[in-house]
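Is this the right way to post C-alpha coordinates for a design question? Let me know if I should format differently. Anyway, here goes:
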Protein backbone atom coordinates (compact mmCIF):
# COMPACT_ATOMS: atom_id res chain seq x y z
CA UNK A 1 0.00 0.00 0.00
CA UNK A 2 2.87 2.42 0.65
CA UNK A 3 3.05 5.60 2.68
CA UNK A 4 0.34 6.23 5.27
CA UNK A 5 -1.42 9.53 5.91
CA UNK A 6 -0.16 11.89 8.56
CA UNK A 7 -2.08 12.85 11.67
CA UNK A 8 -1.87 16.62 11.21
CA UNK A 9 -0.69 17.44 14.75
CA UNK A 10 1.52 14.40 15.37
CA UNK A 11 4.78 15.09 17.18
CA UNK A 12 6.18 11.94 15.61
CA UNK A 13 4.95 12.25 12.02
CA UNK A 14 3.72 15.72 11.05
CA UNK A 15 6.09 17.63 8.76
CA UNK A 16 4.52 20.82 10.17
CA UNK A 17 5.90 20.19 13.67
CA UNK A 18 9.37 21.74 13.74
CA UNK A 19 9.81 20.32 17.25
CA UNK A 20 8.97 16.80 16.10
CA UNK A 21 10.50 13.90 14.19
CA UNK A 22 8.66 14.08 10.84
CA UNK A 23 8.61 10.30 10.38
CA UNK A 24 7.11 8.78 7.24
CA UNK A 25 5.16 5.64 8.11
CA UNK A 26 4.68 2.86 5.55
CA UNK A 27 2.39 -0.18 5.34
CA UNK A 28 3.23 -3.25 3.31
CA UNK A 29 2.04 -6.85 3.47
CA UNK A 30 0.70 -6.74 7.03
CA UNK A 31 3.64 -4.80 8.48
CA UNK A 32 4.22 -1.14 9.31
CA UNK A 33 7.63 0.49 9.30
CA UNK A 34 9.53 3.75 9.26
CA UNK A 35 13.12 4.71 8.70
CA UNK A 36 14.30 6.65 11.72
CA UNK A 37 17.20 8.98 12.20
CA UNK A 38 16.91 10.79 15.53
CA UNK A 39 19.15 13.78 16.21
CA UNK A 40 20.64 14.96 19.51
CA UNK A 41 17.60 17.11 20.37
CA UNK A 42 16.09 13.88 21.69
CA UNK A 43 19.00 12.37 23.57
CA UNK A 44 18.57 11.10 27.11
CA UNK A 45 22.25 10.55 27.65
CA UNK A 46 25.07 11.84 25.47
CA UNK A 47 24.42 10.63 21.90
CA UNK A 48 21.80 8.06 23.07
CA UNK A 49 18.17 8.49 22.04
CA UNK A 50 15.90 8.98 25.06
CA UNK A 51 13.92 5.83 25.88
CA UNK A 52 10.66 7.79 25.89
CA UNK A 53 11.22 8.83 22.29
CA UNK A 54 11.95 5.23 21.29
CA UNK A 55 8.82 4.04 23.08
CA UNK A 56 6.74 6.77 21.44
CA UNK A 57 7.91 5.82 17.95
CA UNK A 58 7.15 2.15 18.60
CA UNK A 59 3.72 2.98 20.06
CA UNK A 60 2.88 4.88 16.87
CA UNK A 61 4.04 1.91 14.77
CA UNK A 62 1.87 -0.50 16.81
CA UNK A 63 -1.13 1.83 16.54
CA UNK A 64 -0.77 1.95 12.76
CA UNK A 65 -0.44 -1.81 12.30
CA UNK A 66 -3.45 -2.33 14.57
CA UNK A 67 -5.52 0.14 12.58
CA UNK A 68 -4.43 -1.09 9.15
CA UNK A 69 -5.07 -4.74 10.01
CA UNK A 70 -8.37 -4.32 11.89
CA UNK A 71 -9.84 -0.97 10.69
CA UNK A 72 -10.50 -0.23 14.36
CA UNK A 73 -9.48 2.97 16.09
CA UNK A 74 -7.71 1.55 19.12
CA UNK A 75 -6.03 2.88 22.20
CA UNK A 76 -2.96 1.53 23.96
CA UNK A 77 -4.05 -0.26 27.12
CA UNK A 78 -0.88 -1.99 28.30
CA UNK A 79 2.72 -2.36 27.09
CA UNK A 80 5.90 -4.20 27.94
CA UNK A 81 9.14 -2.63 26.72
CA UNK A 82 12.63 -4.12 26.45
CA UNK A 83 15.78 -2.14 25.68
CA UNK A 84 18.58 -4.41 24.47
CA UNK A 85 21.20 -1.95 23.22
CA UNK A 86 21.47 1.85 23.17
CA UNK A 87 19.81 3.47 20.15
CA UNK A 88 22.30 6.10 19.12
CA UNK A 89 21.49 9.60 17.90
CA UNK A 90 22.35 10.48 14.30
CA UNK A 91 22.34 6.83 13.26
CA UNK A 92 20.00 5.17 10.75
CA UNK A 93 17.54 2.60 12.14
CA UNK A 94 14.24 1.08 11.10
CA UNK A 95 11.22 0.74 13.37
CA UNK A 96 8.89 -2.11 12.37
CA UNK A 97 5.67 -3.53 13.72
CA UNK A 98 3.23 -6.37 13.25
CA UNK A 99 -0.11 -7.52 14.57
CA UNK A 100 0.38 -10.57 16.78
CA UNK A 101 -3.15 -11.79 17.51
CA UNK A 102 -6.71 -10.87 18.40
CA UNK A 103 -8.42 -12.41 21.43
CA UNK A 104 -11.99 -11.19 21.90
CA UNK A 105 -11.66 -7.42 22.51
CA UNK A 106 -7.89 -7.58 23.02
CA UNK A 107 -5.62 -6.78 20.08
CA UNK A 108 -1.91 -7.54 20.51
CA UNK A 109 0.84 -5.95 18.47
CA UNK A 110 4.60 -5.70 18.63
CA UNK A 111 7.15 -3.20 17.34
CA UNK A 112 10.92 -3.00 17.45
CA UNK A 113 13.92 -0.93 16.40
CA UNK A 114 16.57 -2.62 14.31
CA UNK A 115 19.77 -1.55 12.60
CA UNK A 116 20.60 -2.05 8.93
CA UNK A 117 21.74 -5.62 9.55
CA UNK A 118 18.46 -6.51 11.32
CA UNK A 119 19.81 -6.56 14.89
CA UNK A 120 17.11 -5.62 17.41
CA UNK A 121 17.87 -2.74 19.81
CA UNK A 122 14.49 -2.28 21.51
CA UNK A 123 11.14 -4.07 21.41
CA UNK A 124 7.67 -3.45 22.79
CA UNK A 125 4.58 -5.60 22.93
CA UNK A 126 1.26 -3.88 23.40
CA UNK A 127 -2.35 -4.64 24.18
CA UNK A 128 -4.86 -2.42 22.39
CA UNK A 129 -8.59 -1.99 22.73
CA UNK A 130 -11.02 -0.26 20.44
CA UNK A 131 -11.75 3.30 21.55
CA UNK A 132 -15.26 4.29 22.56
CA UNK A 133 -17.33 7.25 21.42
CA UNK A 134 -14.87 8.29 18.70
CA UNK A 135 -16.28 10.44 15.91
CA UNK A 136 -15.22 8.68 12.70
CA UNK A 137 -15.65 11.82 10.52
CA UNK A 138 -13.55 13.90 12.96
CA UNK A 139 -10.95 11.13 13.06
CA UNK A 140 -10.73 11.04 9.25
CA UNK A 141 -10.59 14.86 9.11
CA UNK A 142 -7.54 14.92 11.40
CA UNK A 143 -5.32 13.32 8.74
CA UNK A 144 -3.44 14.76 5.78
CA UNK A 145 -4.02 12.51 2.76
CA UNK A 146 -2.02 14.60 0.27
CA UNK A 147 0.90 12.17 -0.21
CA UNK A 148 -0.84 8.81 -0.18
CA UNK A 149 -2.17 6.41 -2.78
CA UNK A 150 -5.87 6.23 -3.69
CA UNK A 151 -5.92 2.68 -2.27
CA UNK A 152 -4.74 3.86 1.15
CA UNK A 153 -7.18 6.77 1.16
CA UNK A 154 -10.03 4.38 0.37
CA UNK A 155 -8.97 2.18 3.30
CA UNK A 156 -9.58 5.16 5.59
CA UNK A 157 -12.72 6.41 3.89
CA UNK A 158 -14.28 2.92 4.11
CA UNK A 159 -14.72 3.63 7.83
CA UNK A 160 -17.44 6.13 6.88
CA UNK A 161 -19.53 3.48 5.12
Amino acid sequence: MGILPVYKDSFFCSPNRKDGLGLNIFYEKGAVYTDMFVDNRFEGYEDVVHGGIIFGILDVIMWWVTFMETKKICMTRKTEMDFFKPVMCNTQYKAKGELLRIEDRDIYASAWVEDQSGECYAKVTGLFREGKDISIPAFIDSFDFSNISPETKEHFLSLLK
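Format looks fine. Someone answered above. Worth noting: Residues 71 and 158 are 9 Å apart (CA to CA). The mean pLDDT is 94.
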